[in-house]
Every structure is written in C-alpha cells, then in structure tokens.
C-alpha cells in the first residue's frame, strides 16, 4: 500500500468559503496547510510563518534556483510561492497537504505535480456569493463588484479542476471534500497487489 | 448539474465479500443491483427475476441483436448478460446501478460504457480469504484450492480497476464504497458551471 499523503489544490472565488472549509479539514489532524512564501512586506499583525513565510527577494530567488517551490508566481511586483520541502515531508508522513491557490496557479501545479488533486469550492449561486461578500461589510461597493466579476471569471475555469464541490451548508461541503480525499486514496494505482499475493 | 446515477462495476474473488457489501449498499435506497439474464436453466429455488432473468436462447439472441445488453458473454455453452434498459432507467432516475461482474467482464463494460466506474473488492490477505472460503464448509478441498488459485488470477487483474477497496471490517468497506460513489458525483465533468453563472 502506498501510504503517501495527497497534494490537494483548493481554489474558489473570494466569498465561496474556502478558508472555513480548510479550517474544518485541518481539525481532523491528518491534513496540513502549506504556508506560502512571499517577498511582499508583512501587513498589520501578520507574523512570519503564520500567514506567510516572509522572504527577501534574494532568498526567494535562491529557492527558485534550488527547485524549492511546487509553484510560484509574481503578482504586483512580488513573488508568491508554495515551498516544496515541508509539503513533501508531510506527504511522506502520510498527511494530506492543502495548497490554497489562485485559479491561475492550478495549471502550474498540475504540470509540476501531476499526481495532485484539485478541488474547486463553488458558491451555491451568484446571489449567495454576493450576499456573503456584502455581509463582510469591509469592502467598498467598487471592490465588491470587482470581486463578483473576478468570481465569474474563476467559475468559468472551474471545469479544469478534478472536482467541484458546492459550499452550501458547510458540514456537507466538508464531508464532500473528505469523501474525495478518501476516495482518491482508494484509487487502484495506489495499491500494490503484491502485498496481497505475497 | 448532471444528476444521472452511476454505473458501478463491482468485482472480486469468491470469498472477498462482494455480496455482503452490495446488500449493505442497497439498504440506502439510492442503489439498485442489475439482475443478469441467462440462458442456463434455473437451479433449485432460483426464481425468474430474482437471481436471474431466465431467457431462451432465441430471446437472448434477439436482445443481443437489439443492443439490449451492457455486456454479455458465454460460459460453458450458456449466455450471461447485463440488460441495458432497466439499468438506464434507474440511472435516469438518479440511482446508482451495480453490476456484479466477473473480472473478465470488466474490460467489456468499460469499452461499451466508458463512464462506468469499477471497484475491486479485495480480501485483506490470502490467509483470510482461505479462512472465509473454508468457513462456508460447503465446498470440497479441491474446489477450495481451485477458488484460491482463481482468486490469485483475479487479484492480479485488480490493477485494471478504478478503485481497490479492502474488505476487512465490513462497515469500513461499505463506507469506503460510499465515499467513492459520492466523490465520483463531485467530478467536475458532471457539473454545469452555466447553472451558477446563469
């Protein structure tokens, strides 16, 4: 039996509830969340190793040269990436590793880690998504409309994912993600029939 | 959302416990078991439409000509097949349809119904399989050795299935099969993003 943990990409528009789903998954103890590295400066209360690993440009570029990222990208002049070493250690311990990644990053991960599985967390409807975004009440009208337009673009790309899971009632959504992780571990290519045949 | 039920091939060696697993799955109400058709004569208490649909050779051949089978084969001069019509009606009702099929029949089903999913029910070990076969106590030593040899051949082909599920504790095995059925329904290709985007 190949007991290695799974590399799990989770994406979805802002307001779909990815964060809550991931928090629930981690409670089970067999799921870890990859902490991204970035060259942007910490904001407010952000702590190194909690929200991000904050790196200098040189440190980040050294890691790129040493094949230290599962994927990385530049946004607004800063680097963002998913460190490879910690994720691989967790997987070798049999833990599933979640990468919360922008829709645009999913293709890259699939190229570099074809065994990864990708899950798109989908809002039940655009109306509910809008309602959730407005409830936060921290964003301007302009920002909300921008997020909704962006959500539509992201949803159009959801078909590139392996699984699409609607986040209506959170418990159902979490149970569905757990089903997927369990089922993926039952795939025949993870099983060594020689262990049975001797 | 494409709510069609799944076509699920379940195979595994005699003594692996397929029958018990299938009985448990059916209890949920959303799973039906395809009843095979055969040209062999009923044995003992067997009733038409329960163990098998008993057909004449002409009836069976008519059904072949009218594309009436998901798969069929001949063993020992008799035809055996999985009728298509009832299975498709159930699937259109959103029910999952189980075909309990010999390992040799799985390839055929996959060719004709590429969307089907295939699950191999695996004994935890050859020792446990032997123990289970001997417990039945209805078979001769020769028959038990024959079944064990055949089981090894079948297990060698398990890698051709989509999923391999070990049947240790029956509740775990049934829960694993349910995970697989649930996860398969969350596959992105069954989701219509237009329903969200409007």
Summarize the structure.
The structure is a homodimer of 198-residue chains. The first copy, chain A, has 198 residues and is an alpha/beta fold. The first copy, chain A, has eight helices and nine strands.
What does this protein structure show overall?
The structure is a homodimer of 198-residue chains. With 198 residues, chain A is α/β, with parallel strands linked by helices. Chain A has a single domain, classed as Rossmann fold (3-Layer(aba) Sandwich), CATH 3.40.50. Chain A has a 5-stranded parallel sheet with strand order 2-7-1-8-9, sandwiched between helices. The longest helix of chain A has 16 residues. The radius of gyration of chain A is 18 Å and the shape is globular. The two termini of chain A are 13 Å apart. The model of chain A has no long low-confidence stretch (mean pLDDT 92). Chains A and B meet through helix 6, strand 9 and helix 7 of A and helix 6, strand 9 and helix 7 of B.
